[in-house]
Design goal:
By secondary structure, the protein is an alpha/beta fold. The chain is built from 7 helices and 7 strands, in the order E-E-E-H-E-H-H-E-H-E-H-E-H-H. Strand 1 and strand 2 form a beta hairpin.
């Protein structure tokens, strides 16, 4: 097995020398257990996992610009990358869309992780993900991995994290209209 060295990485510890801050975007009611598992594993490995609990006040606002500013300033700013956990109804959630938009506005890395619960179109068997994430997977900007790969260990996540952060910013696609409400369940 060959390990590739990244700046700031100490292979003897198998964690970054400098803590990477990660923002995790997910459907709280449906995918909270996956968030907890990811945060537990990687929080112990030296990653700083940002949770958006303080966004609840902003989310009570009807002003989308205020909410977007709160997302960018309170959660995305200071992070290196956003990981989007894609479960059964993630593609229907407006705040997930807005968090992806805020990530792209800041030119941060973007990783989509498809969960075992992801919605699959019954006719085509295609996985259904948020439109903004899909556009950036297609453009080559966002990294797209399975839950199993995401949870396989710190070296694997570090490899994908550094890949996401180093991708060309010219590949960002952030023109999709913002969702104005959650899609019906």
């Amino acid at each position: 097995m060959t390990y590739y060295q990244y700046p700031g990485f100490n292979a003897s510890q198998a964690v970054p020398d400098t803590k990477r801050k990660l923002f995790i975007s997910y459907h709280h009611a449906g995918d909270g257990a996956y968030y907890q598992a990811l945060a537990a594993l990687y929080g112990k490995q030296g990653y700083d996992i940002i949770q958006d609990n303080s966004l609840r006040d902003a989310r009570d606002s009807d002003d989308p610009e205020y909410v977007m500013r709160a997302i960018r300033e309170n959660h995305i700013a200071g992070t290196s990358c956003t990981i989007v956990l894609c479960g059964e109804v993630t593609y229907k959630r407006k705040y997930v869309d807005w968090e992806i938009r805020g990530t792209l506005d800041k030119h941060h890395g973007l990783i989509g992780v498809y969960l075992p619960t992801i919605y699959r179109n019954p006719l085509s068997r295609l996985l259904i993900v948020p439109d903004r994430l899909h556009e950036n997977i297609q453009s080559g900007y966002a990294v797209w991995i399975s839950w199993e790969i995401a949870m396989s260990g710190p070296l694997t996540l570090l490899t994908h994290l550094e890949d996401a952060i180093s991708r060309s910013k010219s590949k960002i696609v952030n023109t999709h209209p913002m969702m104005t409400r959650n899609a019906p369940q």
